[in-house]
Amino acid sequence: MTSLIASGARAVSTEALKPLDTFERRHNSGTTQEVAEMCAVIGFKDIDALIDATVPENIRLKKTMDMGEYTQPLTESEFLTMMKNMASKNKVFKNYIGTGYHGTHVPTVILRNILENPGWYTQYTPYQAEASQGRLESLLNFQTMITDLTGMPLSNSSLLDEGTAAAEAMTMCSALNRGKKPKFYVSNKCHPQTIAVVQTRAEGLGLEAVVGDENSFDYTAKDVCGVLVQYPATDGSIIDYKPIVSQAQANGIRVVAAADLLSLTMLQPPGEWGADIVIGSSQRFGVPMGYGGPHAAFLATTHDCKRLMPGRIIGESIDAEGKPALRMAMQTREQHIRRDKATSNICTAQALLANIAAMYGVYHGPEGLKQIAKRSHDFAAVFAAGAEKLGFKNTTPEFFDTVTLKCPSGADAIVKACASAGINIRKMDADHVSLAFDETTEIADVDALFKVFAGGAAAPTVAQVAPSVNTTMPMARKSEFMTHPVFNQYHSEHEMVRYLKRLEEKDLSLVHSMIALGSCTMKLNATTEMIPITWPELANIHPFAPKDQTLGYQEMFRGLEKQLCEITGFDAMSLQPNSGASGEYAGLMGIRAYHQSRGDHHRDVCIIPVSAHGTNPASAAMCGMKIVVIGTDAKGNINVAELKAAAEKHSANLAALMVTYPSTHGVYEEDIKEICEVIHQHGGQVYMDGANMNAQVGLTSPGFIGADVCHLNLHKTFCIPHGGGGPGMGPIGVKAHLAPFMPDHPSMKDGAVAVGGDKPFGVVAAAPYGSALILPISFSYIAMMGSEGLANASKRAILNANYMSKRLEDYYPVLFSGKNDTCAHEFILDMRPIKDATGVEVADIAKRLMDYGFHSPTMSWPVAGTLMIEPTESESKAELDRFCDALIAIRGEIRDIEDGKVDRENNVLKNAPHTAEVVTAKEWNRPYPRDLGAFPVEWTRSHKFWPQTSRIDDVYGDRNLVASRAAVEVAVAQTA
Ligand SMILES: *Cc1c(COP(=O)(O)O)cnc(C)c1O
Q1: Distance in Å, CA 106 to ligand 1 centroid
Q2: Please, what's the b/e burial string for 749-764 (b: 16 or more CB within 10 A of its CB; e: otherwise)?
Q3: 611 in ligand 1 pocket by Cβ < 6 Å?
Q4: What CATH code is carried by the domain that includes residue 364?
Q5: How far, in Å, CA of 637 to CA of 621, rounded?
Q6: Is residue 819 part of a domain?
Q7: Which of 204, 297, 819, 950 could form an S-S bond across to 165 if both were Cys, CB 3.0 to 4.6 Å?
Q8: pTM for this structure?
Q9: Domain with 874 in it: what CATH number?
Q10: How far, rounded to the nearest angstrom, does the alpha carbon of residue 509 sit from its chain's CA centroid?
Q11: From CA 851, how far away is CA 935, in angstroms rounded?
Q12: Residue 613 Cα, ligand 1 centroid: separation in angstroms?
């Protein structure tokens, strides 16, 4: 016995009891062996030598980040336990607050197959339309649903939230008058957060938002561009706005209606009573409230306003075979082309949420939606009748789903009584409360309400009250909607799940292959990071729920702020902006408010390098700033001499510099500290565009470098998935002197939850914490990586970029590099010499990559005729190699053209991508074998991604804009 034990004896070390696997190993994907191999290829002894040679010494952080309790990494299971514990501090009350946010049942078939499915949520914005037909179809469904419900001919897909959609509508009204009518009327019956967002936006644009009773506005005034009304109004009442429409329009004032989508299944749509623009949120179509977002807003309008329409529009065009195909229409309106003259500053929007809302429409169909609406209305009617019996007067006799009641003993008492029964209602003022009913309301819920409202006296029940309630709908809708087959044939779960799968399979996402999008950081969106977002404790919280019900959220926000402050080197964070562009706008408005607080109202010049992202000039324009563009030098760096001259010239009026670091050319500029100093010397503030944080985290930081404010794209560097074009979050970090100016929110006026500074410049998003529901994704990423893991991620991102650049440099010239001939986390391949020699354009290479199973890197930005590659830390060496192999093989195909072996026009590149239909067609008359088109490399034979259409003709579609399903059907019929 003794000897047996002795021979098997093994001392247990504490080391051996540590978790077996760390999250970092899954996220930073190369192994130690692979890292060594890659370093050898680049010619460095190890990764630290590469980093030392790449990141300038004077901006290098000398110590690891101290994120307090988040410094040491958590394992995935440790994180989930911690997060569950935190989330459980939120209280999920029965909710009737309304105000633009409502309970909804996310159909589980949509929950599992879209929201929880990386095949949908890891897609990129559908710039490569041939590999995006699935989501483009779904977004077209969204547009069709919105046009049908609003009664307008044209809709976009999609905007950030209802508040910003209203602000965009105001901008449109102003632009329709070429900015010559600076006033915009806003009815005081709009939702308070909408009014606040519009007011702030007006301030920056130099417009005036006049808030008041829509019946007392002067509609004969000559300086008014538009009027905004809410339908039904924020108190729930249904108002006939026709008299206002005729007065306003007689004088050229446009009418904007903020409408509740579900109500439009029962109410005459604004398009039928003459509105020019209809905006709203699609949240209650199957997207959880999530403490404020993300949700897809919409904007619908008439055809003559199409060029001024904000956001993305999906439209039909034709492909090279002459077949109908979808793609994003009229992109020339957008900021990546038009910069400060863009129609809007929507880059990342809410594509994933628009898809969910559209699928909710597909699943329920028009009849299902009507039933949901009718039932919500009936509950409101029954409740109102019962409450009247109890002495509460209904002040909204004409309502859809929301009623406002005058309370015999004041609003506070009943709000409090409800709260102690686990119920949230909305306090309108000292005497009134309002309640909104929705899809999730049940009979027992209303019985529970009656009990509270009876205040101890005998309470009626739904069963007693309902039979005597007669409801009529004023302004009842008579027209049909959503008659297209897509909304009428997928109502069983089998049909639905197959439709979802069919669309998913048309699209290339991160589940297929790496998406090496320069400046758009498509890294791993880990499953564990995504788990919490569907927990009811996080998903089912109304954004205006009282503070004592959201302690879990508050704790998470404070944790995330702490993490992000340390990462950016800033003193405070605002978690309100819900996109990168929105962060830029918020940061610049903060800078503006700071200058004004010092009496410097004249400081309005913003210096922006030519290489900046289009959102930068567009944001500056939204803040009323004058843009001074400066150039770059031969290496892609900011031209420091030109910058100095500009700062000197505009010294008295300098407001800010907007700078991206490392530069959009993928280079760490040595002069960045000096650049910041120059701006400060002239009294300006430095705005750093933090989209490239993936090359900074743990190595340097905007605060350390000398910036005053910076936004972070949490949907790039911090793992929120791109969702096919959104959601995103763009929080801003600031130095202490700017903290007082951070945005606040009207829902927080009672001090419910701390948000913003004490001298806030205004409100940038409809909800106080923007798209709060997706913040746990970034929070978990940081917590599971820990300080060292994050720094390693930046190092690996730089290593991977340099490795690829090295492997490719003999085939394609690499544009720009840093001091030691290395690049940062991304690099640019110059395709212009190829075009000159062979006529092959960058688009041909991009489309040919699809035949190899890859999404193209960023095309022609920031330099026309180039590809910008950003591999990220998450890709394994095998995947990096596969991508390089594809590009190298394509170089061979180009060489054949160069050598005159194949035709310049009729070849695999010009004809790319190759669909299954084309390569299996009866006729084949191309000068290369069919399988060279479809199976150019071995791996495509075992797992082939098939592009769905041949090359799409953008220009054709823009000339004949067709942007909804019914319209498409007609167009097909006409061409057939
Ligand atoms: C992505 C990006 C933005 C804009 O962010 P959105 O969330 O799309 O609005 C701004 N600047 C740079 C450099 C970016 O890459």
Answers
A1: 30
A2: eeebbebbbeebbbbb
A3: no
A4: 3.40.640.10
A5: 24
A6: yes
A7: 297
A8: 0.97
A9: 3.90.1150.10
A10: 17
A11: 7
A12: 7
